[in-house]
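Duplicate of #3305? Posting structure anyway:
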């Protein structure tokens, strides 16, 4: 069963910041970033248990081609995304969101 994906405001902001950063490096690269994130989110919505549990019920999926991870939690009918995390940053940033 495909699950609905919802985002926290922080995860939405992470996505926008990643898009803006890549787009500022090269026109169109931001769009490629969004496409890669979307592909990862589709995979999560189809098979949320496929990805590694990293803390309690929270899981991490790695975005292809870009150094980003998607931190999420699955419930009966939805997947809630808490962070679209730049792996080059301090991991405490996303961990604080789960407390």
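Output from current build:
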């Amino acid at each position: 069963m495909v699950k609905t994906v919802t985002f926290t405001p922080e995860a939405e902001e992470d996505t926008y910041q990643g898009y803006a950063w890549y787009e500022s490096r090269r026109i169109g690269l931001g769009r490629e970033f969004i496409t890669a994130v979307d592909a990862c989110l589709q995979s999560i919505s189809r098979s949320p248990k496929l990805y590694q549990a990293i803390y309690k019920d929270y899981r991490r999926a790695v975005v292809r081609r870009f150094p980003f991870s998607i931190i999420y939690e699955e419930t009966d009918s939805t997947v809630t995304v808490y962070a679209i995390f730049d792996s080059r940053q301090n991991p405490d940033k996303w961990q604080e969101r789960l407390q």
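Confirmed duplicate; merging threads. The chain has a mean pLDDT of 92. The chain has one domain: 4-97.
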